[in-house]
Amino acid sequence: MPQNKRESLIYTFIMCFMMVFWMSIYNVSLHMGGLSMESIKAGWLGFPIAYIFAMCCDWFFVSKLAKGFAFKYLVKPDSSVLRKVISVSCCMVVPMVIIMSLYGAVEVSIEMGNFSNLLMMWLTNIPKNFVMALPYQLIIAGPVVRFVFRAAFPEGKVLA
């Protein structure tokens, strides 16, 4: 886990990249009826704006909320690192799924030029995204990003 604000920013850049890229491809594939080179291309093209939006939400709002909730209700300072990581990860996924599901629904509504189904689209996106985002975060993205982060930035090398 990051030890200071700079490490946290670097870690967030990497984690957000992995999560938003995969979830963009996943959502476009759902919208297009399956995974294909076309859906990967469309996911990649929509990625930059979604990434910037997700980074801003994560850095300025969600991480403070998630860490605050996790450390108030789920873990104590003396809890194991694994328990802290899993608790904070789960607490990050929930609000990010809610926010980014709305982002996706708005994006599709703009593309279609029809906002009449926005609320229903958002509400149906949330469970679809949650069932992908949580396992992906816990099983793939989290471990990969933590490994890459610590390999690139050994503990104590990024100064506060």
UniProtKB/TrEMBL annotation:
Keyword RNA-binding among record annotations: no
Signal peptide: none
Pfam families per the UniProt record, alphabetical: DUF2798
Source organism, top-level taxon: Bacteria
Alphabetic keyword roster: Membrane, Transmembrane, Transmembrane helix
Ranges annotated as spanning the membrane: 9-30, 42-61, 81-106, 126-149
InterPro entries (alphabetical): DUF2798
Protein name: DUF2798 domain-containing protein
Organism: Anaerostipes amylophilus
